[in-house]
Amino acid sequence: MSERLDLQRCGWILDPEGVPATNCVGLIDAADLDSVGWMQVLSFLPSEARRCVLVAGVGEAQDRTSLLQIGFGDVVTERIGIEELGARASRLAQFTDWLPRTRRVGRLTLDLLSREAFGDGKPLNLNPREFALIWRLADSIDQFVSKQALIYDVWRMGFVPETNSVAVHMSRLRRKLAFVGLAGIIETSPTGGYRLHMPDDVPLADRTLLTADSSAPRSGDGRNASLAH
Question: Where, residue-wise, is CATH 3.40.50 in the chain?
């Protein structure tokens, strides 16, 4: 890591493990990486870790856009000043506090870190897109989400393709939910949208839509978060 990107100059602490975790910000200097280097970075980082990683030294706007689209927390050019870099890293560290680790909908629990769903503690063994679908539906409990919105938010496409990908993935997701006794929790609207339904038998006091896991590590104000190179 070059001196120009050394956030220790801004009061950050270097994580000796060097691996992005839930309470730190990863910093990657991509200035000297070619396309092969990008592939190595992407294969190393799981998708759930990318949101805590800031990539610096990306000169082309198209490359920055691509990295943001696949989930990296922030992407900047090689001309960024250390003060701005520190501010962006602090904002990224705070993001881990804003986004809940878990969400609970009745007997269903969604874990963002493991990207898995559990029915009464039993894992559904979701693939990444199935988890992204149910997490997106959990953004709007009891409200229908259109197919177009799902295509944009989960598939990152600006148009609805001539395929039934949403229906296929939703069918697989429903089968897995039924296997743990949660059949019917996803409903379909007459217009083709879907919603995650809060069961009627859940007590009013327990109808918390978004529940942060208090046991998850916290990043504090950003300056005290660890910095992984």
Answer: 3-99+218-228
Provide mean pLDDT across the span 193-218.
55
Q: Which CATH architecture has domain 102-206?
A: Orthogonal Bundle (1.10)
CA distance 221 to 30: 26
| pLDDT band at residue 48 using 50, 70 and 90 as cut-offs | low
Burial 165-178 (b: 16+ CB within 10 A, else e): bbeebbeebbebbe
CA nearest to 105, candidates 77, 145, 135: 135
Tens digits of per-residue pLDDT, 156-171? 776 666 678 899 999 9
Q: Which residue has the higher pLDDT, 18 or 124?
A: 124
CA distances (Å), 135 to each of 80, 126, 154, in order?
Answer: 34, 11, 10
What's the CATH fold of domain 3-99+218-228?
Rossmann fold (3.40.50)
If you average pLDDT over residues 33-45, what whole number do you get? 64
